[in-house]
Amino acid sequence: MAASSQSELLHEIAQFLYRAARYEDEHRYEDWESLWTDDGIYWVPANGENIDPEKQMSIIYDNRSRIGLRVRQLLTGKRHTQEPQSRLRRLISNIELLGDDGNGLRVGANAIVFETNQRGDTLWCARLEYVLRRVDGALRIAYKKVALVNGEKAIPTLSFLI
Amino acid sequence: MNMIATLPRWGDLIHQNRVHGSLYRDPAIFAQELEQIWYRTWVYVGHESEIPNPHDYVAKSIGLQPILMTRDANGAIHLLLNRCTHRGNQVCAREKGNTPTFTCPFHSWNFGSDGRLVGYAFPDGYEGLDKTTLGLGRVPRVESYRGFVFGSFAEQGPSLAQHLGGAAETLDRLVMTSPEGQVEITAGFLKHRTKANWKFVLENETDGYHPAFVHSSIFSVADSAIGSLYGAKSTAVTRDYGNGHTEVDLRPEFRKRGQPLSWFGTTAEKLPDYVAKMNAAYGDAKAREIMIDGTPHVMIFPNLFVAEIQMFVIEPVSVDETVQHVTALQFKGAPDLNRRMLQQTMGSVGPAGFLLADDSEMYERTQRGIQADKADWVFLGRGEHRERRDADGFIIGLATDEVPSRGIWSHYKALMEGK
Hints:
The complex is a heterodimer of chains A (162) and B (419).
Chain A lengths: L2 H23 L3 H5 L2 E10 L12 E5 L1 H12 L11 E14 L4 E13 L2 E16 L2 E11 L14
Parallel strand pairs in A: 1-6
Antiparallel strand pairs in A: 1-2, 3-4, 4-5, 5-6
Chain B lengths: L9 H4 L4 E3 L6 H12 L4 E5 L8 E7 L2 E7 L5 E5 L14 E3 L2 E3 L6 E3 L4 E3 L21 E5 L2 E5 L7 H5 L3 H8 L7 E2 L5 E5 L3 H8 L5 H4 L1 H6 L4 H4 L7 E6 L2 E5 L1 H7 L14 H11 L1 H10 L3 E4 L3 E4 L2 E9 L2 E8 L1 E2 L3 H14 L7 H14 L7 E3 L8 E2 L5 E4 L4 H14 L3
Antiparallel strand pairs in B: 1-21, 2-11, 3-4, 3-6, 4-5, 7-8, 8-9, 10-11, 12-20, 13-19, 14-15, 14-23, 15-16, 16-17, 17-18, 18-19, 22-23
Helix pairs in contact in B: 10-11
């Protein structure tokens, strides 16, 4: 790939991830859900980044239908832990295009998320790994892994979209 | 926060149907609970299947005491304090592993997986020292029941069987969901921190009144039959086994349905391998009974909660902080059941769980609520007028009654009074 088209692609990826981050920060649940492919996997492992989620407990391990359920629960307005909603802002950085494995573009990034709610202020830090795929010309999330830096420790409720 | 100089008369704070807010808020009471409850009674520590091989170990706790649960060369289980007997350094900084000896990195003292002092660096400095007096500190009494390992810091006292009493039968019921009669704890734990007193967690586990409200969001969008179990018309019963152990017995509802595996939200057709193994293990009639009744929903005082498909361990951290450790139950010989159990558990529990994130929110709001100490009682009178005794003599109530909370507090009061 030529250098210019490579940097255009990276720019497109960054803009896409920033938009997803804004939807997450602003609790735009339906807009966020529309960014997923039909086979999307949303994974927040616990106790290390490389556990087998089919055999070990994860904080979140949602297939596409469970992503939809998560969104529908938030939309009821009775998801108490998000009523009132956490106030959130996040930075996505260190974005790298790691390859194209045929299934989609492998993208890595780092994230820092600041959350404030009645419980207090919480700083969440994570490594992000994505597989992004083009659907009808637009980037979509086929896979998002959020490996919390402190995922081996006891953590408070994590009920917003990370 | 109101520190109290002298300990209260517990009867002033704990009545039959109400308890005082300071019990959830006062650091002096928390300190007293450590001594009177956590460092005295039987406390659940871990499961035998977490350390299957000789020299396996896993880091656990009792109250604020860091405990290494180990298996020695001969297969015996020890509960050891993670503290070098030389200068107090942690002898182990990992969560789990396998080692025949724990070598303290500070001065190279080393201890066997049975806790005995094996040796130290430059031994000429310790001429004539009796090593047997310097083994790792240990929990003096260790017993297990159905693979669940408990420890008691009291040198003497009731046996584990006496402590479990009638509630032991719930663990008997639990293991029968395995065609081999064994639970395995192999899926790792989520650790969910909550800014609330441990007793709010304890009481909520067998509170059948809250699900319809706290969990209405997920019940309204998921295809879940859990909601009806805790409705006003539910035939499930709440039970006080004594010794602080409590249960929401859902069997009446499951028996009404009369469908094997309905308790698990599935059908026999979807788990044919499991059903065949159960029939072979127990005979068709008994297997059908087990698969209709399902697993228990029982809170073993003070810290082991079995909730049908998952297990929680309550760890008190301070008067207003608690960690819930939770994992999917796995049943030996039931891989198809286990896969679904893990999936359902991950959806329900932990920091992002469809259910537990809202429970935890209630714990934290209640902790903030009871800071309002000008109206300082918590009312636990629901269903007091309709308590009755079951065939075994245990107090029971309707599904939404506060029989469990009253049972917990009655036992709590006895322990705090030193009885």
